[in-house]
Design goal:
Oligomer: single chain
Number of strands: 35
Structural class: alpha+beta
Bound molecules: CU-O-CU linkage, copper (II) ion
Radius of gyration: 31 Å
Shape: elongated
Length: 689
C-alpha cells in the first residue's frame, strides 16, 4: 500500500511539473496571439490547461491524505506540511486569479476579429496574475520533487527553509519580470509585440549559467563528501535518546580492546580458519576467484556446545584487502566482534588474529568477514555456526540436523551451500528433523516452502520460540543475514523444502533418498507477530520504563557519498559518518522505533544484542517473545523494538543488504565510557563495510 501511494505521489508530482510547465509557457505567449480570433481560441485552451494540471494535484492530495489516514505520522508529516501547500497554493491561485481573468479575456475577444490586437486586449493577455499562477505551479512541483529526492527526515524546520526560500525568490523574480513586460505592453505607442528576438540566445545563456552552477555544486559536493583518510568510529554525532547526557571522563574511560573473551584458561575447542583466494569453478566454464575459508565455499560449518570456550585463529594467507571474522548473531564480548576499524585491525596477508569467546546462546548463527564485508561475503568469506545445547549429548545421532545456507554464486545463481538443483537425502521416518535456514545473500530476500509435513518454526535469529504451533502451507521469508529453524517429525512420505517458488532448488528428504519434486501449494507468509505463546515473565514489556528511546528512520536521498553521486540509503536523513551514534549506559533499557520510508526493504542488524520486537505497524507482538538480530523492515513498516544494554562496547548497527551498508547505511551503538583505539579510512586499511 505504502509503495503504491508513494508511486502515485511521484507520478502526480511529475505530471504536475510537466503540465504546469507547458501551461506556463503557453500562458506567457498568449499576447503574441496575432489576431483576436486566435487569442480567443488560445484563451479557452489556457483554461482547459488549468483543468489538466489540477488533476495530478488532486491525485497528490488524495494519496497523501490516504497515507495520513492509515499510517504513522513519520511517513507523512513532511508530505502534509510541505507537499500539500506547495501543490495546493499555486493550483488554487490558478483557479482564483488566472481563470477568472482568462474568462474575461475570452469574453472580450468573442466577437472581434481585428488584427493587430488592441492595446486593451494585449494588456489583459499579459497580466502577471494570468501567467504567474501557472509558473508558480511549476516551481511548487519542482520544490516537491526536491523534497522527494532529498527527504527532510526527521522533520525539522531549518533544513526545509532554504529550498522554500529559494522557491519564493524564484516566484518573486518571475513576478517582477512579468510586471515589467506588462508595463511595456501597456504602452499604446509601442509596436505590436512579437516574440522577443534574442530569446534563444537568452535561453542558451541561462542554460550555461545553470549548468555551470550545477557543475560547481557537483564538484564541491563530491569533494566534501569524501570520507576522511582516518577517523575514529567513536566520533559520530551523539544521540542520547532523550536520556541522560553521557560525557567522556578520561580517568574512567576504558578501551574496548580490554573487552575480550576469557584469555586465562585453556579453550574447550580450537579452530583455525585460513582466509585464502582460490579459483573455483562451480559451474563448468565459469571459474571465478573466490575468497574462501580453508579453501571451501562456503567456509566450514563451526559446531560448538553451549558454554564452551572457543578459540578461533584467523590466518590471512593472501587476501590483500584484509579479513576479519564477525560472529553474526552471537553476542560475544566487544573485542571479539570482528569489525575492522571498530573492534580490531583488519588482518592483512601473513597476519593472524585470535578470537576467544564462550558460546552462551544456542542456535543458528553464521560468521563472515567484516572487512570490505560486501565484497567478502559475495566472494565466499563466510560459513555457518551452530551452538548446540549443552545437555543434548549426541544430538546429531537421533536428530537429523541440516543447515541450509542460500547464496548467489557467479555462474550458478541461487544455490544451497555451493550447489544448485535438488539435493536428496535419506531420512528414517519418525526421526526428528531440524532445518536451519540461513540466508547469507547480501541482496536477495528468499522464501522457502516446506511441503509433505506440518512443521514448527522453532527459532528465529538463533533464539528459540516459546510454544510454536504447527504450520502448514505457510512459507518462510528470510531476509539477508536472517535465520530460522524449522522442525518436524519425518513422515513416511517424502518432504520437500523448496527454495524460491520454481521447484528447481531445494532439499528432498525421503525414506530411501529418492522421490520427485511435488507441486508447491498456495501459501501465506509466516507471521511471527502472533506466533507461539507468550513467556511467563517477560524481561521487557511494551510499557516498561525505558531509559532511552531512539528513532531510526530509513529512507533514500539523492546525494554524494565518498565522492560519488547517487541514490543513497539513509538513516535519519544521513549516511555514515553523519548517521547518529546511539549512546547508552550499561544497564539501560532501550527502545528504538524503526520506520522505513524508502522503496526497498532494509534488514537492520544490531551487533552484540538481540532486539525484542514490541510491535509492528502499531500491532503489539502477542505470541512468543520474538527476538531478532537482523530485522527485515519493509517499505511502509514501523517497528518498536527494545533491548537491554548489557554488553558494553562499540557495536555496529547497519543494513544487512551489504550493498546499502557499503554506501553509508550504517551507524552504531556506543556505551558510555568506552573508547576505541582503532580507526577506519583509506590510511588505516580498515574498511568494515
Ligand atoms: Cu553480518 Cu555487521 O554483520
Ligand atoms: Cu538496506
Amino acid at each position: 500500500m505504502f509503495t503504491i501511494l508513494t508511486s502515485i505521489i511521484y507520478a502526480c508530482v511529475f505530471f504536475l511539473l510537466i503540465l504546469s510547465w507547458i501551461a506556463g509557457s503557453k500562458a506567457s505567449k498568449l499576447l503574441y496571439g496575432g489576431s483576436t480570433e486566435r487569442l480567443h481560441r488560445k484563451t479557452r485552451k489556457q483554461i482547459v490547461w488549468a483543468v489538466y494540471l489540477t488533476l495530478p494535484a488532486i491525485g497528490l492530495v488524495a494519496a497523501t491524505l490516504a497515507m495520513a489516514a492509515t499510517m504513522a505520522p513519520v511517513f507523512w508529516e513532511d508530505r502534509v506540511l510541505l507537499h500539500l501547500p506547495l501543490a495546493l497554493v499555486p493550483v488554487l491561485s490558478v483557479w482564483v486569479l488566472a481563470v477568472p481573468r482568462l474568462t474575461k479575456l475570452w469574453k472580450a475577444t468573442r466577437n472581434v476579429s481585428a488584427a493587430p490586437l488592441p492595446v486593451e486586449i494585449r494588456k489583459q493577455a499579459a497580466q502577471p496574475l494570468v501567467i504567474l499562477p501557472y509558473r508558480m505551479s511549476t516551481i511548487g512541483a519542482a520544490t516537491i520533487f526536491y523534497f522527494l529526492l532529498v527527504t527532510p527526515v526527521p522533520f525539522r524546520l531549518g533544513p526545509v527553509l532554504v529550498p522554500i526560500l529559494l522557491a519564493a525568490a524564484a516566484v518573486a523574480a518571475l513576478g517582477y519580470a512579468q510586471e515589467r513586460k506588462y508595463g511595456r505592453v501597456g504602452d499604446a505607442n509601442a509596436p505590436a509585440p512579437t516574440l522577443p528576438r534574442g530569446r534563444w540566445l537568452r535561453a542558451a545563456g541561462i542554460s550555461c549559467v545553470v549548468i555551470g552552477v550545477a557543475a560547481l555544486i557537483f564538484i564541491v559536493g563530491s569533494r566534501s563528501s569524501r570520507l576522511p583518510a582516518a577517523m575514529s568510529m567513536a566520533d559520530g554525532p551523539m544521540d542520547f535518546g532523550g536520556g541522560t547526557v553521557l560525557v567522556h571522563d578520561p580517568r574512567t574511560d576504558l578501551s574496548l580492546a580490554m573487552l575480550t573473551g576469557p584469555r586465562d584458561r585453556e579453550p574447550d575447542r580450537k579452530i583455525t580458519l585460513t582466509a585464502e583466494k582460490k579459483t573455483i569453478e562451480l559451474s563448468p566454464g565459469e571459474p571465478f576467484e573466490a575468497w574462501t575459508f580453508n579453501g571451501q565455499l562456503p567456509g566450514p560449518e563451526l559446531r560448538m556446545k553451549q558454554g564452551e570456550l572457543v578459540e578461533v585463529t584467523l590466518i590471512n594467507r593472501d587476501i590483500e584487502e584484509g579479513a576479519t571474522i564477525h560472529w553474526h548473531g552471537l553476542d560475544v564480548p566487544n573485542a571479539e566482534d570482528g569489525v575492522a576499524g571498530a573492534t580490531q585491525e583488519a588482518v592483512m596477508p601473513g597476519e593472524r588474529h585470535v578470537y576467544r569467546f564462550v558460546a552462551e546462546q544456542t542456535g543458528t548463527f553464521w560468521y563472515h568477514s567484516h572487512q570490505h564485508s560486501q565484497e567478502a561475503v559475495k566472494k565466499g568469506l563466510f560459513g555457518s555456526l551452530v551452538v548446540e545445547p549443552e545437555a543434548a549429548e549426541g544430538i546429531g545421532a537421533e536428530e537429523e540436523d541440516l543447515t541450509i545456507m542460500t547464496h548467489v554464486w557467479k555462474g550458478v545463481g541461487m544455490a544451497i551451500g555451493d550447489r544448485s538443483g535438488i539435493q536428496r537425502k535419506k531420512v528414517v521416518p519418525g526421526t526428528p528433523v531440524r532445518l536451519r535456514l540461513i540466508n547469507t545473500e547480501d541482496w536477495v530476500r528468499q522464501d522457502y516452502t516446506l511441503t509433505g509435513t506440518p512443521f514448527r518454526v522453532a527459532a528465529i535469529d538463533g533464539t528459540d520460540l516459546n510454544g510454536p504451533q504447527e504450520l502448514e502451507n505457510v512459507r518462510i521469508e528470510l531476509t539477508t543475514g536472517g535465520r530460522m529453524d524449522l522442525t518436524f517429525l519425518m513422515p513416511d512420505a517424502p518432504v520437500f523444502l523448496s527454495v524460491g517458488r520454481s521447484g528447481k532448488l531445494g532439499v528432498l528428504l525421503s525414506r530411501d533418498g529418492t522421490g520427485s519434486v511435488p507441486d508447491l501449494p498456495e501459501t501465506t507468509a509466516f507471521n511471527p507477530i502472533d506466533y507461539g505463546t507468550p513467556a511467563a515473565a517477560a524481561a521487557i514489556q511494551a510499557d516498561s520504563d525505558f531509559d532511552r528511546e531512539f528513532e531510526m528512520i530509513l529512507d533514500n536521498k539523492l546525494a554524494f557519498y565518498n565522492g560519488e553521486f547517487g541514490s543513497l540509503y539513509t538513516i535519519n536523513g544521513e549516511v555514515f559518518p553523519n548517521t547518529p551514534m546511539f549512546m547508552v549506559q550499561e544497564g539501560d533499557l532501550v527502545k528504538t522505533t524503526i520506520s522505513n520510508r524508502g522503496a526497498v526493504d532494509h534488514p537492520m542488524h544490531l551487533h552484540g544484542h538481540h532486539m525484542l520486537v514490541l510491535s509492528r505497524n502499531g500491532e503489539p507482538s502477542t505470541g512468543s517473545p520474538w527476538y531478532s538480530d537482523t530485522l527485515d523492515v519493509q517499505p511502509g513498516e514501523i517497528y518498536e523494538v527494545a533491548f537491554v544494554a548489557d554488553n558494553p562496547g562499540l557495536w555496529m548497527d547497519h543494513c544487512h543488504n551489504l550493498v546499502h551498508a557499503s554506501v553509508g547505511m550504517s551507524m552504531h551503538l556506543m556505551y558510555e565510557g568506552i573508547t576505541t583505539p582503532y580507526q577506519i579510512g583509506s590510511d588505516t586499511g580498515n574498511h568494515p563495510e
